[in-house]
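Sanity check

After download, print the first record. It should look like this:
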Amino acid sequence: MQGSDGSSTSQSTGASQHSPGASRLARARDAFALPPTVKRLFDATPLVSYSENARPRMIPYLRDRHVLHVFCTPAAAVEGAPSYNPGCLKWQTLLLLSGVPFRISPSSNHSSPTGALPYLEPSQDSQRLSSITSIPTPGLLDFIRKHAKNPASLSPSAHCKQYVTLLNTGVRLAYLYCLYLEPDTFDSVAMPYYIQVSSQNQLVQSFSAYNLRDAAAEEIMSGTPASREGLRPALLLAGAREAFAALARNLGEAEWFASANVADSVRRVQSSHGSEAGFLDASVFAYTHVIITLFSGSVGKIASQLYGILLEHKNLLNHRKRLLTLFENG
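Expected structure tokens:
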């Protein structure tokens, strides 16, 4: 007798009764069968599946302080130590000087809403979790102005902007060359601090390294008269030497750059620690501290020379120590 599909019904039934596979399936069912007493309990109280909880919008759920996401190690985050990235450290320093309560959190460009660090998550309570928004770097100055315990204008004066420009062109370009384009420094500093912390995958690391080096080379080439045939580290070091010398002359014997110029007195930041430091102080410290911290060990020749140029200016070194004391006293 055949079924509607053309198969033999009697043969099929007989095969299923004697199939080794069917016997194993039956034994497996018996092995996982609930004991009769437990089965009766579940039959009396059937399981109920509830809908999933809504996913939190952001972590941590509750924050009593603002959170600045920066390049730093987990240990540095716990201690509130300075970031090893100049861009992040400038804003970390300004927040500290202004008396705004905050903490730092280790992060990377990949986790930033804008693809760049730093960014800040404002403190929130349970009633306002739905309104959480992150503040990218361009909005940090307005945020600090609004929340500073000591209300004072943080807008850099025209005089200050000139020195910030000098810092960003002279010191920054030499720093970028050392960090990303000098092989020895790249291997000893950039790899562990910027690449290996983001991924353990060698292919991803190679891709990240290429992108970072390419971006650094492009920025340096656009900011210097260097030839497209090759970058000139001697020219970059000369620019850094000129910038540090000008900053050292501007600071002189004063403790802070803001107090070195009467015209900038309106734009000082009176910090909660009693210091009078401002935008230029934070900008300079961001580079002097990172260069002292990262380029004092086993690095390449150009990085060692940049480190040596900074060591020639004792007042800049003392300026760094004063700001570092503010970090240590928290």
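If your output differs, re-run the checksum step. Summary of this record's structure: The CA atoms of residues 150 and 270 lie 6 Å apart.
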